[in-house]
Specification:
Oligomer: single chain
Strand content: under 5%
Shape: elongated
Transmembrane segments: 6-28, 40-62, 68-88
Protein name: Na+/H+ antiporter subunit G
Helix content: 55-70%
Keywords: Membrane, Transmembrane, Transmembrane helix
Organism: Paragemmobacter ruber
Distance between the termini: 64 Å
Pfam families: PhaG_MnhG_YufB
């Protein structure tokens, strides 16, 4: 393995570690739940992705071949991390008790939900006027 490739792999691993460290720091230091949700999801996706890329490149260069398992893990993380963050943020939004701070939606459920029983089946979002 050449010296340039070793430097490239080292840089990828250090970048992945920095993203992981930044995400951990953001999880601890950010003040709101929604902000704390953003830091680890993005950092884990990029951090684990760079580590897996470095591992795949290392395997190719030492002659063990291409690893489909690492590609599948990367695809799984890239698909599931944003979906998980979306579900957690929706749970957070729907669990907050705003009282009368939000405008009325015209249906029995909270705002920003999809109600197929109303005419036109449009999402009920708060208006910017009120």
């Amino acid at each position: 393995m050449t010296f340039a490739l070793e430097i490239l792999l080292s840089v990828l691993l250090v970048v992945g570690g920095i993203f992981g460290l930044t995400g951990s720091y953001g999880l601890i230091r950010l003040k709101d739940r929604m902000q704390r949700l953003h830091a680890p999801t993005k950092a884990s996706t990029i951090g684990v992705g760079t580590a897996l890329i470095a591992s795949m490149l290392h395997g190719l260069m030492i002659g063990t071949g291409f690893s489909w398992q690492e590609v599948l893990v990367m695809i799984f993380i890239f698909v599931t991390a944003p979906i998980t963050a979306n579900y957690l943020s929706k749970v957070h939004l729907h669990s907050r008790h705003y009282g009368d701070a939000l405008p009325k939606t015209g249906v029995s459920r909270d705002w920003a939900t999809f109600d197929r029983t109303t005419e036109g089946a449009e999402p009920m979002l708060p208006s910017r006027d009120s």
